[in-house]
Amino acid sequence: MDLRLPSWRRLRRLRLRDFTPRGLYARSILIIILPISLLLVAVTYVFFDIHWRQVSSKLSESVAGDIAFIIALNEVDPDKLQTYLARARNTTRMSAVLRKDEELPVAERRSFFSVLDRTMQQELTEALDKPFWFDTTRYPGYVDIRVQIGPDVLRALVYRDRAFATTGHIFIFWIMGASLLLTLVAVIFLRNQVKPIVLLSEAADAFGRGEDLPLFKPAGAREVRRAAFSVIRMRDRIKRYVDQRTAMLAGVSHDLRTPLTRLKLELALIKGHDLSAAKADITEMESMLEGYLAFARGEEGDPPETIDLGDLIRSACQAASERARFSYDLPDDILLRARALALKRAIANLANNAADHADHVWVSLLANEENVSITVEDDGPGIDEEQFEEALRPFGRLDAARNQNVSGVGLGLSITRDAARAHGGRLALSRAARGGLRAEIILPRSRK
User: Fold this and answer.
1) Whole-angstrom distance, CA of residue 297 vs CA of residue 346
2) Cα separation of 105 and 177, whole Å?
3) How far is 39 from 29, CA to CA, in rounded Å?
4) 84: CB partners within 8 A, 6+ apart
5) DSSP per residue over 416-438, as a string?
6) Tens digit of pLDDT for each residue in 243-272?
């Protein structure tokens, strides 16, 4: 009993959505097809159970009664049997003949549609008290019925429409044809209704990655168009906010560069003094300004394009490879639609961060049908797991074991995470197997 408990628990956790399609279009089709299919099954069952079965039973009962009447007449006056058979041929559409010294066939031929055989078997059994045999398959338009009368056999060929209701398949054909036609019309109209929703979803996803779809126009039902216009207005508001933020910080950066440039010129004109510390401070301030401006630009800038990730990663790691040993595992021809400069800056931040704190850095690239993964690992001191969030926070400062701010202002990982999010992906940090930090950028493949 204990061994079966986990299976029962798994069964209890199963829900209806585990068996239904995920997509809106597929679910909408299911909503249409399932009721139509259930209605078709119910109507067919009711038709066969109430109408067709009852009609066929009455017809078979009539045929069995006619045969029983002929047998009764034969028992009363055998000499007039041929006269009775001739009249039966004209009035009951049944051709009968008495075969002398013959026995019933042994082999049975059953119809594929077994309801016919069961109905005829039941009615003949109730009407006759003699052995009989019948065949509903040998002749397409007739039913062959034979009855043992002493040493002889009475054989009757009955028109098929006299024994069974032969129009049932026509009813099924029409109801199935009508259902298929209605389903096709519903699917066509439904596709036109779902298509604007799919386009809106793709447009919203593209807006989230920082791309612009100039050909996108709101369409569909009133509610869908309203949602599309809301998404467009939200995109425009976000774009204005980002532009204002970038312009503000660019202006601040420009205003601060001017006095810094004057200070550098004044320091260059001073002779006879050790000014290396002052020059280093000015250089660090310039680096800080560049970091602030890069963080402010975020996802804005270069337009999306199709790039070769292997070439982009090697180019991004080139400067950092002068300070540490780099090993690459980069498959060829891995293409991705992305903002080349933003993604290159994000990878360069990871490479520089690793090179600042480690002797050996491993860079790898994995790809499947849905995602691409860019991983940078090192053998440095690493970061404790409880400090991952702090490391990703803008201007976050870590302990002295691995100070991210040795050559920066604490924006490298923040810029990388923002770039990954701008492409619809994410940045994941973990402990590397080699002892250092493992940073992984996971990006979705661009939709066609």
Assistant:
1) 13
2) 41
3) 16
4) 70, 73, 74
5) HHHHHHHTT-EEEEEE-TTSSEE
6) 787 777 777 777 777 787 888 777 777 776
Q: Is the dihedral of CA 82, 86, 91, 95 positive or negative?
A: positive
In this prediction, residue 366 carries a pLDDT of 93
Q: Residue 281: what are its φ and ψ, rounded to 5°?
A: -65, -40
DSSP reduced 3-state for 168: helix
Half-sphere exposure of 296 (CA within 13 A, CB side): 18
Beta strand 132-135 with 142-149 is antiparallel
313 alpha carbon, distance to own chain's centre = 32
**Structure token digits, residue 432:** 């590397």
| CB 300, CB 335: distance < 8 Å | no
pTM recorded for the entire structure: 0.53
AA letter at 117 = D
The enclosing H or E element of 120 equals helix 114-127
Which residue ranges form the domains of the chain, and what is each CATH number? 25-166 (3.30.450), 302-444 (3.30.565.10)
Contact 402, 390 (CB under 8 A): no
Residue range 314-324, pLDDT digits in tens? 999 998 989 89
